[in-house]
Amino acid sequence: MGAAALSACAPPAPPSGGPAQLALPTDVSATDKTLRWANWTAYLDYDEEAKNYPTLEAFMKETGIATTYSEDVDDNDSYVSKVRPQLEARQDIERDIVTLTDWMAARLIRDQLVQPLELIQMPNAGNLLPQLKEVSFDPGRNYSLTWQSGFAGIGYDREKVGRDLKTLDDLFSEDLKGRVVVLSEMRDTVGLMMQWQGVDIAGQWTQAQFDEGVAKVDQLIGDGYIRRVKGNAYLNDLKSGNAIAGIVWSGDLFVLRFETENDNWQFTIPESGGTLWSDNMMVPITSTHRRNAQTLMNYYYEPEVAAQVAAYVNYVCPVVGAQEELAKTDPELAESPFIFPSADYIKENNIQGFRALTAQEDADLSAQWARVVGN
Amino acid sequence: MSALAHAGGGGHAAPVGPPVERRGTWIPYLLLLPGALWLLLFFVVPLVQLFTVSLQSQYPGYPGYYYRDLNVGNYWSALTEFAPHFGRSLLFAGLATFFAFCLAYPLAYAMAFKAGKWRGLMMICVIAPFFTSFILRTIAWRQILSDEGPVASVLNTLHLLPGGHITETWMAVVAGLTYNFLPFMVLPIYASLERADPRVIEAGGDLYANGFTTFRTVTLPMSMPGVLAGTLLTFIPATGDYVNAELLGSDRSTKMVGNVIESQFFKVPGGYPTAAALSFTLMALILALVFVYVRKFGTEELL
Hints:
The structure holds two protein chains of two kinds. By secondary structure, chain A is an alpha/beta fold. Chain A has helices spanning 2-7, 54-63, 76-88, 102-110, 130-133, 158-161, 168-171, 186-196, 207-222, 234-240, 250-260, 290-300, 303-313, 322-329, 331-334, 343-348, 359-372; strands at 34-40, 66-73, 97-101, 134-135, 138-139, 144-157, 180-183, 226-230, 245-249, 265-268, 274-282, 351-352. Chain B is mainly alpha-helical. Chain B is 73% helix and 1% strand. In chain B, a hairpin with a 7-residue loop joins strand 1 (57-58) and strand 2 (66-67). In chain B, helix 2 crosses helix 12 and helix 7 (170-195) crosses helix 9 (211-240). The longest helix of chain B has 42 residues, at 73-114. Chain B is globular, with a radius of gyration of 25 Å. At the A-B interface, helix 1, helix 3, strand 8 and helix 17 of A face helix 3 and helix 11 of B.
């Protein structure tokens, strides 16, 4: 009774919106030549024999900034859940650059947990692909800089499947029932479903259209077509043979080819279209090495350096001029549409980014998606 | 203070000199202090914190921002929405406890009475899995039970596997739970059987009871404290477990309440109060079940 009476109290004033004054920590970059960078796995050129990252070694030699590179991020949600309380309490998370996907970057920028960048200190940032310069979550790129981009599409083992998969109808067919995995990233899996249903995912689609996309996934799980809905761990199912096809990220299939020494792994954009996403480098609000971070970002936007990284990671390179650089060393790879997709390729294959969501939509749709995938 | 001193010293404390009695008054408290502080800091404080989170409300239109409130509705909505997960948790944990008991009792019996010189080796075999992380062992089970692994292919050849695969079914989850908690069942049962006086069991034979009657009326009752401890040590953590369901289960039909709590905390923006309410409900539910269970089957020795 008492509880009910108390809970009837009006909620206190919500947190102040709009651009509040950001208190940035004092930058010690000039005296403290260190930098700590959190990134995803297999996302930077690695030399197996020397056990180091060649481009990063060169950066350290050139600038004298001792950089600690850690492959901390294996999932946007789990990484940010871990560091968010510290960021909010303004306690050092011991990272000066974090690399996160667009929608998570949107949340961090919205909640003012990352620092604005001094673009004037990063002349190479002008090499960013024109279509990535104006993103909805960070107009003018004041807080973030793209690390790599990629597509979500169909991945499969051609030998085990026994035919080519060109559409999602092919993927969810009777003979592949229970052998298909899909990504737990809502924007990729639901995005592909909505495109399948003819929705423009970059446009102002309605809640009803989103519901239909989710319902499709729901039905495919219920009917046993989809075996599992997973994050990066889907690669294990493909490796173990539990799954032989799925909705996957483009670069991963090249890693899979390399790791399983099996060239039958194919990646294709379904005829109804694929999704395009980017991971973005940002400086957390607690970092005292913003200048060093900017120096590194500037370095990786030199076309030759970007080309070196692209040749290893096989994801879409966001740097203008890198294609010409890569053509000098590996002309064949420089033609790969998965690293340097032409504007025509993107258009012909109907590759689109999922439209930016408002804070409320983001929360509601994430909860709706979580219910469908079972928890 | 003085009450405790009297209780501790008992009736015979009187003849002893006063200094001893005075020392007796604070030493028990001093001994309790580290444990009590530990519990206060790492159990009571987080528990209170969790409870306040479970009653928080969200600012309308500001997902992820909460204010302190007494929103009991969180419990109601969490319970109605996730009731199937609670049911599944209890069912899977119950099944795992049952299977673990069926496997553990004969094993513990053999170790206690029949193993002879092999007892030490058997003990090591029971404990050895603890030397590797249980996550790694569960991932290994995923490989063993995979479609092209030995178990599934044999069962498929014999047409004994209706769905065609083991992983992503409830069988895999229950098997995983049973496997992971088996040692917690074996060890207490073994300990209580090993303590049992063999002469008492022999006496059963002397009194013309057959083997089964001796077991039923002598051995089993003597091992009840072990069985009780074993079932509790298996059932309680198994109910809250989410690793097995995460790694061996599918995405919908085998999710347990632990998986929901995990995803509400870490994946759903604004899911904190729901997750906290679920955690509290789970705790209360287990506490109630255990209370009833111990009252019904508990023995003097254990309590």
